[in-house]
Amino acid sequence: MYSLFTGQLQHDRMDEQQLIEACIRGNRKAQKELYETYSRKMMGVCLRYAGDRETARDLLQDGFVKVFVGLDSYAEAGSFEGWMRKVFVNTALEYLRKSDVLRDAMDLDDTAEPVRYDNSVISQMSAVELTQIINALPAGFRTVFNLFAVEGYSHKEIGEMLHITESTSRSQYTRARQMLQRRIKDQYE
């Protein structure tokens, strides 16, 4: 709609704060708008941890339920999207802990010989190809890799979140990197 007062196009969409407040009041239209605004990005988060689309969809729904239930706890410290991302990561980790994906996680010797490959191969890969290779990692490796390399958590934080030692987190990350390097080398060289 065009505003005669400002001479600018007006959007029917609410700003983020109005949207959050409307969702807290239980406004279904606002909840739908919030879902539509963030569902693609949060699905990406869920896919990184789930490894398959069906589980990721379940995590997406669980995550949005948690967002709507806990929306009044958003303290406006940092970005809203960052707060939501944390809710979704925690939802995925809760699922993975229940699934006990790290039951076989143990400290491994980090001195294994690194895989040698041409680094230019990665720059030629699409994001989809790289994501597929990461998603093919065993769940424990994929989880630690995503938490450290993508989300930016420290190994100490990862250990606390997953109820493993810091050194187990380090070794799982190292093994994940080695496995990724091997798969890239085998697939693209």
Q: Tell me the Rg in angstroms.
A: 20 Å
**Secondary structure tally, helices:** 9
**Residue-averaged pLDDT:** 83
**Rough outline:** globular
CATH architecture heading of the largest domain? Orthogonal Bundle
Task: Based on the model shown, name its key terms.
189 residues, mainly alpha, Rna Polymerase Sigma Factor, Chain: A, Arc Repressor Mutant, subunit A, globular
Task: Report on the architecture of this protein.
With 189 residues, the protein is mostly helical. The chain folds into 2 domains: 16-99, Rna Polymerase Sigma Factor, Chain: A (Orthogonal Bundle), CATH 1.10.1740; 120-188, Orthogonal Bundle (Arc Repressor Mutant, subunit A), CATH 1.10.10.10. It has 9 helices and no strands. The longest helix has 23 residues, at 28-50. The model is unreliable at 1-12 and 106-115 (pLDDT under 50).
